[in-house]
Amino acid sequence: MHFKAGAAVALIVLSLASFCICDISLTVNSHDVGLKLNESETFLILTGSNFTSVNDTLHIIIQHTDIVSINLTSIELNWLGPNESVPIDIKALGLGRTDIYSNTSNTLTNVDEVYFRVTVHREPWLDIFSTTIGWIYFLAWSVSFYPQVYINWKRRSVIGLNFDFLALNIVGFILYSIFNLGLYYIPEIKKEYSERYPRGLNPVQVNDIFFAVHAVILTSVTIGQCVLYERAEQRVSTTARIILGFFGVFIAISIVLSGCDVIHWIDFLYYCSYVKLTITLIKYIPQAFMNYRRQSTSGWSIGNILLDFTGGTLSMLQMILNAYNYDDWASIFGDPTKFGLGLFSVAFDIFFMIQHYVLYKHSKYEEN
Questions:
Q1: In a 3-state reduction of DSSP, which class is residue 200?
Q2: CB 157 within 8 A of CB 227
Q3: CB 28 within 8 A of CB 118
Q4: Alpha-carbon gap, residue 44 to 30, rounded angstroms
Q5: CA angle, 221 as apex, 313 and 228 as ends, to 5°?
Q6: Where would a tag sit more exposed on the chain, N or C end, judged by fewer CB atoms within 10 A?
Q7: DSSP E strand stretches across 104-185
Q8: 3-class SS of residue 357
Q9: What are phi and psi of 314, to 5 degrees?
Q10: pLDDT exceeds 70 at position 155
Q11: Rounded mean pLDDT of the chain?
Q12: Which whole-number Å values give the CA distances from 129 to 124, 318, 319, in the listed order?
């Protein structure tokens, strides 16, 4: 009987506590703040319709005081009532990104929603331009997989398409997908990145994720064509298998070390990105050598190369624009895979264009 009475009292207390927390919760009119350098804008801290005054003080804290300043650092909550707003002026002092958050000494005051994510840029139009470039290169890189798929389907043959290139490509894009998904979606890894680069923006954007996952799917389709269509004696070479085996062991060891807390999980993601970068550096070599040996680019889509060249160039341009606009050059070093992917791709694309349009432009090679 005493147990039931105690349980009932506890339930009532918890219900009242929940009601109190709800009644004195605070929020803001916008969490995301974008400012131009030396610009100032007013935002609001809001009370709800059921807000109840409480003898407490709201403390407002800036993560990086050299990036922004505010006109209020504390608010006495006992002066506030329902449906009130407190203006707070945020002024941009320097380029970069910072958080403005809050706390109180009274645990009944819910301030989880009282925060601002502030980015300060040189020019707002550069943000729009950068976003536009990002989607253009995403489309160019994504569409670049289709010309090869179409050529394979039209010829009902994959002769001239190097299997080592495909094997390296699928592994590389799987690892790149893991890197992008982890750094964008996993809270613990995002926190580790923020601690390592406290003033940096997350270098992974939504279009990066779409591109990487789409690349895995289309490369898998191309590999399926290699099973279905004429391929002569082509196969994955022993050299490529050894290289992929070495990468597999390296990734497996990295997973074990991360699981045992020897290294951070963000380091594991970086190792995945480094393997992807290495693969990007070497994956074109087998195809380039095959073209040289055959003295032909027959079976290898130049449309793929032209679109890949466009995507790689725009990818690097976007990163440079963002770094300049936010004075955040660490974002390039924070995501060396993305910048290196564009750089190496462009270099090899130029080489392939020379092969196709200059060295072997008159070749009519056909496999016997």
A1: coil
A2: no
A3: no
A4: 8
A5: 135
A6: C
A7: 116-121
A8: helix
A9: -70, -35
A10: yes
A11: 84
A12: 9, 9, 12
